Write the structure tokens for this entry.
Amino acid sequence: MLIGNVGVEPEIRYVDAGVAVATVRLATTERGYRLQNGTEVPDRTEWHNIILWRQLAETVEKYVHKGDKLYIEGKIHTRSYDDRSGQKRYVVEIWAEAIELLSPRRGETQEQTAQP
């Protein structure tokens, strides 16, 4: 489970037989704090590659934009590949199984979204 902000506009593509796939870069931040001895520990931001398939990808295409806050549930997938120089590289991705849009829709105010 992750809650974070979308860092760049989502990338949408269609593969075999028109199946939608979306890639979202999600930033999660652990807030900094001060130790008892006065040492400041700064904020720490992690970037996650989120992969969404089919209807989740279509939802992302319609409603998700840079800066939006998302809640993601999914599984960690690790894959490897050889780069151009022949070195093995590893990629960690989250394959989303559920998302929730936490930002108000574009053009709505907080008051509009709070009304029943």
